[in-house]
Write a structure and sequence with these properties.
Elements (H helix, E strand, L loop, with lengths): L3 E9 L3 E3 L9 H11 L3 E5 H7 L7 E5 L11 E3 L2 H15 L3 E4 L3 H7 L3 E9 L7 E2 L8 E7 L11 E8 L7
Parallel strand pairs: 1-6, 1-7, 3-4, 3-6, 4-5
Antiparallel strand pairs: 2-8, 7-10, 9-10
C-alpha cells in the first residue's frame, strides 16, 4: 500500500492560515470536520503546529518534524527531516490500515510537501486578516475542484466558510 498525502487546511481569502502560532479564527464547524477527516490517520506536522495543539489528538498518530535534536513530543513520533517523516507516516498508515497520510501544517510543512500532495481538503474562510503563516499559492492548472459545500454558519463560528476538495491533476506521488 502506498498511502496518498492529503493536506487539511483552513485558509483566509488572503492565504493566511495562522497568526502567533495559532488559528486567527474560531470555527467550531470546521474543527468537527477536521476531526472527522483526520481520524484514524497519521498526521505530519511541524513542531510549531504540534506546540499550538499542545497534545496528541485522540484517534490519530502525529509525526512531528523538527530540526531540534533534543525535542520531545510525548505521545507523538519525532522526525528530523521531511523524508524521515514520510517514511514514519507510511509505516504508521500501513499499521493503521489507512490509505492516507494527513499533512497538517504549518506553512513550512505545506511548502515542503506541496508537490507530493494528491488532495487538499480546504476550508475557505471568508476573512481577509493579517497573519504570519500562509498557505502556498496553488497553480490553478495543477488542481481540480471536485467538491464544494457551504454549510450554514453556527453561533460558534466567527466567519462564513466553505469546504472545498481539490484533487491534483495527474495524481500525487510520495517521493
Amino acid at each position: 500500500m502506498n498511502p496518498k498525502l492529503v493536506a487539511v487546511v483552513a485558509r483566509a481569502q488572503n492565504g493566511v492560515i495562522g497568526v502567533g502560532n495559532g488559528l486567527p479564527w474560531r470555527l467550531s464547524t470546521d474543527l468537527k470536520r477536521y476531526k472527522a477527516r483526520t481520524w484514524g490517520r497519521p498526521m505530519i506536522m511541524g513542531r510549531r503546529t504540534w506546540d499550538s495543539i499542545g497534545r496528541p489528538l485522540p484517534g490519530r498518530e502525529s509525526v512531528v518534524v523538527t530540526r531540534r535534536p533534543d525535542f520531545d513530543a510525548p505521545g507523538a513520533h519525532v522526525a528530523s527531516t521531511i523524508e524521515e517523516s514520510l517514511e514514519l507516516a507510511r509505516r504508521i498508515a500501513i499499521r493503521m490500515g489507512s490509505d492516507e497520510i494527513i499533512v497538517a501544517g504549518g506553512e513550512e510543512i505545506y511548502r515542503a510537501l506541496l508537490d507530493q500532495i494528491a488532495m487538499i481538503e480546504l476550508t475557505e474562510v471568508d476573512l481577509d486578516i493579517p497573519g504570519d503563516a500562509h498557505f502556498p499559492l496553488l497553480h490553478p492548472t495543477d488542481w481540480e475542484e471536485i467538491a464544494r459545500e457551504s454549510p450554514p454558519r453556527s453561533e460558534r463560528d466567527e466567519a462564513d466558510f466553505a469546504f472545498v476538495t481539490l484533487l491534483r491533476r495527474g495524481g500525487g506521488k510520495i517521493k
